[in-house]
């Protein structure tokens, strides 16, 4: 199907090289005069015709093709006045999608809307599909006018193509693709990719605080929470006062020697001081909220060097005394006499042909002779 334009007799055809481009023509308008029109200029240059025009006030989806009869002289009036002399009109549309938010987020157990808006379309009842993409593997969410998969009971389509998810869970975090197919349009297909994040509030973290630490020794405090999404960040508090990442940034902790890692939740003291004794607790937080563990006390005590030395000496003296006592006992034969006394008893040997029988009335053995014939 084609049209002739002016004396150049160029044939205009639907061009697949420009799918979705609005095609706007009007008679007797030099293509150079409408170079600002992004809709007409690429195709005008491609066909090399000298009679092109476009209404600069039209929207990207409302354009027309006009035909100038052969033999008619070019109109030298301003472009906007020339457009009134159009002799024919043919609308050309393409399916175009847009979204209000390509990166939406919501908290767990709340509702979220994935907007997929149709800016232009001419096909009645276009085919609408939604796909969920996780680990580069797509799966259908909405197909054949039905919600499927794990969203079957928690989602619905809001006209024309917006997906509404109720009671969102952490497993809904993924990329979603809205696809619209319009067979009657010049550009029959368009899609939009939306990245959804479902935020999960942290649970109460598990905190580990040593009960007592000697002065000058190292100590490590731990805080762990694995349910929150995005991944939780950690804060430590000393006597209800937040511990800064850098001890030099606060006069209260200026003399402390510690390292705080907010990503892993560890608080390490290289050398514990008496002033470090007190109550500690940890907070896990992310964009969805925060949670804290209960306060735990850490005691710091001095090392009694003298007492340790005296205790070691006492243990050494006791061991020496025990060793000397055992040696004296061996020298005096206490262990040897007990061994000999246990070996003094000997079992009497039996004579050939003689049996020793003990009766109930006798307290000793009675000799019994036997003869072998």
What is the element layout, followed by pairings?
Blueprint: E1 3-5, E2 10-12, H1 41-47, H2 79-82, E3 96-98, E4 105-107, E5 112-114, E6 117-120, E7 127-134, E8 137-143, E9 146-147, E10 155-158, E11 162-165, E12 174-181, E13 189-199, E14 206-208, E15 212-214, E16 219-224, E17 233-238, E18 241-242, E19 258-261, E20 266-269, E21 278-286, E22 289-292, E23 296-301, H3 305-331, H4 334-342, E24 354-358, E25 365-369
Parallel strand pairs: 4-13, 15-23
Antiparallel strand pairs: 1-2, 3-6, 5-11, 7-8, 7-12, 8-9, 10-11, 12-13, 14-16, 16-20, 17-18, 17-21, 19-20, 21-22, 21-23, 24-25
List the keywords.
six-stranded mixed sheet, mainly beta, 3 domains, 373 residues, membrane, transmembrane helix, integrin binding, Immunoglobulin-like, protein homodimerization activity, Ig_sub2, disordered N terminus, 4 helices
Concise summary:
This protein has 373 residues and is mainly beta.
Description of the structure:
Belongs to the immunoglobulin superfamily. The chain crosses the membrane at residues 308-330. The chain has helices at residues 41-47, 79-82, 305-331, 334-342; strands at 3-5, 10-12, 96-98, 105-107, 112-114, 117-120, 127-134, 137-143, 146-147, 155-158, 162-165, 174-181, 189-199, 206-208, 212-214, 219-224, 233-238, 241-242, 258-261, 266-269, 278-286, 289-292, 296-301, 354-358, 365-369. A hairpin with a 2-residue loop joins β17 (233-238) and β18 (241-242). The model is unreliable at 1-70 and 79-92 (pLDDT under 50). It contains four helices and 25 strands. The chain starts with a strand and ends with a strand. Helices cover 13% and strands 32% of the residues. It has three domains: 1-92, no CATH class; 96-199, Immunoglobulins (Immunoglobulin-like, Sandwich); 206-301, Immunoglobulins (Immunoglobulin-like). It is elongated and about 115 Å long.
């Amino acid at each position: 199907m084609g049209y002739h334009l002016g004396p150049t007799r160029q044939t205009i055809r639907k061009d697949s090289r420009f799918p979705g481009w609005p095609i706007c023509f009007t008679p007797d308008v030099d293509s150079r005069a409408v170079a600002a029109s992004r809709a007409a200029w690429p195709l005008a240059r491609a066909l090399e015709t000298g009679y092109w025009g476009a209404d600069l006030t039209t929207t990207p989806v409302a354009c027309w093709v006009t035909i100038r009869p052969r033999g008619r002289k070019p109109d030298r009036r301003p472009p906007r006045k020339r457009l009134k002399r159009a002799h024919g009109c043919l609308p050309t549309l393409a399916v175009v999608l847009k979204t209000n938010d390509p990166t939406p987020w919501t908290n767990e157990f709340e509702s979220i809307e994935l907007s997929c808006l149709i800016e232009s379309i001419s096909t009645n009842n276009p085919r609408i599909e939604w796909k969920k993409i996780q680990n580069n593997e797509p799966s259908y969410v909405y197909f054949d006018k039905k919600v499927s998969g794990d969203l079957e009971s928690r989602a619905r389509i809001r006209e024309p193509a917006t997906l509404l998810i109720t009671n969102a869970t952490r497993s809904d975090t993924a990329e979603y693709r809205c696809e619209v197919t319009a067979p009657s349009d010049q550009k029959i297909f368009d899609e939009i990719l939306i990245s959804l994040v479902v935020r999960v509030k942290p649970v109460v973290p598990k905190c580990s605080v040593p009960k007592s630490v000697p002065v000058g020794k190292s100590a490590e405090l731990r805080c762990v929470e694995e349910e929150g999404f995005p991944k939780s960040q950690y804060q430590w508090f000393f006597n209800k006062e937040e511990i800064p990442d850098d001890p030099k940034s606060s006069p209260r902790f200026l003399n402390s020697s510690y390292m705080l890692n907010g990503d892993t939740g560890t608080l390490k003291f290289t050398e514990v001081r008496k002033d470090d004794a007190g109550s500690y607790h940890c907070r896990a937080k992310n964009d969805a909220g925060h949670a804290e563990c209960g306060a735990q006390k850490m005691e710091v005590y001095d090392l009694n060097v003298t007492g340790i030395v005296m205790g070691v000496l006492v243990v050494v003296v006791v061991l020496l005394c025990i060793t000397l006592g055992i040696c004296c006992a061996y020298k005096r034969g206490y262990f040897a006499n007990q061994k000999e006394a246990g070996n003094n008893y000997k079992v009497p040997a039996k004579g050939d042909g003689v049996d020793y029988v003990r009766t109930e009335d006798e307290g000793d053995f009675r000799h019994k002779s036997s003869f072998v014939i």
